[in-house]
Amino acid sequence: MEKDHSTVVTTVDIGRLEDGNHSELAKLLDAAQNDGIFYLDFSDSRFRHVLDLVDEIFALSSQLFAMSGEEKMRYDVDRLSKLKTNGYKPVGRNHGGISTMSACEAALMDVGIKGDRDGFESYVIPGKTPLGHSLACPALIATHRSTLSAFCSCVQRILGLVLSCLSSSLDLPPKMDLASLHRSDASSTDILRLLHYMAQPSMETGIPQAAHTDLGSLTLLFSNTPGLQARLRQNADWTFVDPQPQYAVVNLGDGLKMLSGGLLAPCLHRVSPLANESMQERYSIAYLQRADDDVEMRSVLRMHDTEAVAKDEIFTSQQWLEKKFGILRRITPQSRLQDGTAN
Hints:
By secondary structure, this protein is of the alpha+beta class. It has helices at 14-18, 22-34, 50-65, 69-73, 77-80, 103-108, 139-142, 145-169, 254-259, 306-311, 317-325, 333-337; strands at residues 2-3, 11-13, 37-41, 87-89, 120-126, 191-197, 209-212, 218-223, 228-230, 238-240, 247-252, 269-271, 282-289. Helix 2 (22-34) crosses helix 8 (145-169). Mean pLDDT is 85; it is low at 103-114 and 331-343.
């Protein structure tokens, strides 16, 4: 079942969060605990300039993905980066909901269409040190170093504010502030991900990005084309989360659920064509925030409990990601939900 509206998705005004508005803080916490996704309104905020940077990055994405396949594959993410923090992913490498069999072929053989590949290409850039001078990347990306760096720095401040607000609303003591586990000056596997969803032929239908929760703490997403769907309030229906002018979409990932001890909910989401339509071409920009490399991936409420530390199986953020990426390319029901791909 699908709902074709997005009015049920909570909108949080970041300007009011900056001011410490109690009703806005309550809206943020409610969305984070029950939906794991919300709109972030930049229309009246000191962060509003991020929207200009978004426009520049969309223009860059269009040029980047128009490059030849041979040129893009010179920067294959699986070759350049063990933790998938730099490089290009071609269409079809991950599991998805698009079949290699056409709808006509499936009808002739009297079988259902079973998805087995994704329908998007992407390019990943390190979020904390975007385009360092030794980073392998196309010249086109290197020439936009200042724009990409400014965007990443701005998003880190935005998401840091969101984490601090959530910590305050959860009454966490200062030493357990979630923002302190995501420091802008610390090493982490934050990424900026540019995505390009291919338009589907009129006879083809399918889900270009299968349902999953993100492999990180928070994802800040910009897009200008519909397609993102989410499961809200434990509802079995899929709800379209349509792009809105001057808004970003923020969704919570598996990492924040772990760090909050289950107090905050990750969002199950996917990218889908509109009802009875094939997928339109779609570009999106996603920043995935992850805990600092040396942070232990367990509830902040247990990090300072020496007895609990002795009993827990401890993984740092980087070790946790390494384990998860071990199954990234596997085609299994489990990997569908834990592949960590952003929209």
